Amino acid sequence: MTETPFRGDRPRVMFYVQHLLGIGHLARASRIASALADDDFDVAIVTGGLPVPGFPPPDIRHIALPAIATGDKGFSGLVDIDGRPVDDDFKAARRDLLLAAYRDFAPDVLVTEAFPFGRRQVRFELLPLLDEAAASARRPLILASIRDLLQERAKPGANEDTVALIGTYFDAVMVHGDPRFARLEDSFPLQSEIADKVVYTGLVAAPPPAPATEIYDIIVSAGGGAVGSELVRAAVGASALLPMDLRWCVIAGPNLPEVDFSELSRSASANVGIFRFRKDFPSLLTGAQLSVSQAGYNTVCDVLRAGVRSLLIPFTAGGETEQTARAQRLRERGRALMLTEAELSVETMRASIEKALTAPAGDLPDLDLDGARGTGAIIRHLLEKRR
After folding, report:
1. Residue 213 within any structural domain of the chain
2. Which of 142, 168, 252, 378 has the most other CB atoms within 10 Å of its CB?
3. pLDDT tens per residue, range 14-51
């Protein structure tokens, strides 16, 4: 079979991302897509989750499949945009739309975010997509895109299945991390079986932000907000017990239920601003004394970029382990304080914030935060090797 890696000077990249609960996967994929577009790639990002304003950015070609989300925090079931469980007809319709988009765009590079290390719930459409791509007359480069720390798999055979899928379909596994901070083998025990395909891009942080034009002392954020209500409630409660000259910015997230958002707004003191979303979040961190957040990948990247002190409350519902592993690494290096969800209360939040505001900066090497551009460089290198 004759293969030509791309037509003309702009290789086409189809980037599939399925967010189910928060917006972290979508935000990271959007950062990478924007960097690829800036590097003269022709990018189409395929999404399958609930709409999130601003993601992907408006200048990126966007193919939106009928939305699905997780039915609970344990990721045990899928529902549609109206909360109804998805059935086989719904799945077949999504699969057909995805395959039609692939044929129409005819990518030179196909990237699957998280899969096959995660997102097993959407195998119903991704396996047919990979089969079609692998059998194409112009087979695209097929790449996996994963964060630096993975969810530990309790299901027997899951890791072995991942290795088999990598061997069958994938040309490389792009790990969006700095190996000085975390290596793939730290959270994927069978890394040695795919080591020849693993490449590190660097951490995918946003570009260095402009200086803050509005100064807050403490920035509290809950990601998408679907699972951060306890965190923001404890922070708002703690704000009343700390000096009133501290200015707070509490970003509750677009997915926090409206009744909870209204309750927070009513209960907050005058020195506390309550917001759904702040586009200038990375800039706000540069002027703050402290960031209080979960330990999601994107938020931690923003905190590292800003160099601000941080208090991390990792998300653990449904057996999630990734955020705890990230928070522990930062705590061990003196770059963050950590409070578990089990320990979380107004009083423990107050005490932890008091301690964090006076904590010295820790010892952590300058990490590679330019993983979005690093991804483009790796893709170009892999395409050139195929030529």
Report:
1. no
2. 252
3. 999 999 987 889 999 999 999 999 999 999 999 999 99
The verdict on 77 and 39 lying in the same domain is yes
The parent domain of residue 307 ranges over 218-357
87/44 same-domain check:
yes
The H-assigned helical ranges of the chain are: 24-38, 88-105, 123-135, 158-169, 229-239, 258-267, 281-286, 297-306, 322-332, 346-357, 371-386
The answer, yes or no, to whether the previous bond of 116 is cis (omega within 30 of 0) is yes
Encode pLDDT of 195-230 as tens digits: 999 999 999 998 999 999 999 999 999 877 667 889
Whether cis (ω within 30° of 0) applies to the bond prior to 56 is yes
CATH of the domain at 168: 3.40.50.2000
Give the separation between CA 5 and CA 107, rounded to whole angstroms. 9
Confirm whether 4 is domain-assigned: no
Encode pLDDT of 224-235 as tens digits: 766 788 999 999
Tokens of 66: 């009928």
Q: What tokens appear for 228 in the block?
A: 């951060």
* Number of separate helices (H) and strands (E) present in the chain: 11, 15
